[in-house]
Amino acid sequence: MPVMDKLKAISGSIAIVGVAESDNIGRVPEKGPMELHAEAGRNALADAGIDKSEVDGVFTAGYSTYDIAEYMGITPHFTDSTSVGGSSFVIHIAHAMAAIAAGYCEVALITHGESGRSNRARAGGNPGLAGAQYEAPYGIMGAPIGYSLAANRYMHQYGEDRTREAMANIAVSTRKWANMNEKAYFYDTPMSFDEYHDSRWVSWPFHLPDCCLVTDAGAAIVITSAERAKSTKKGGVNVLGVAEGHDHSVLHQMPDLTRTWGRHTGPQALEMAGLSHDDLDLAMIYDSFTYTVLATLESLGFCGPGEGPDFVADQRTAPGGDFPLNTSGGGLSYTHPGMYGIFTVVEAVRQLRGETGQRQLDTCELAMAHGTGGTLSSTGTVILARD
Amino acid sequence: MADGYNKPIPIPQPESDNYWEGAKAGELRLRKCDDCNQAYFYPRNICPECGNNNTSWIVASGNAKIHTFAIVHRPPHPGFMDDVPYVPAIVELEEGPRMATQIINVEADPSVISIDMAVKVVFESITDEISLPKFEPA
Question: What CATH number did the domain enclosing A352 receive?
Answer without folding.
Answer: 3.40.47.10
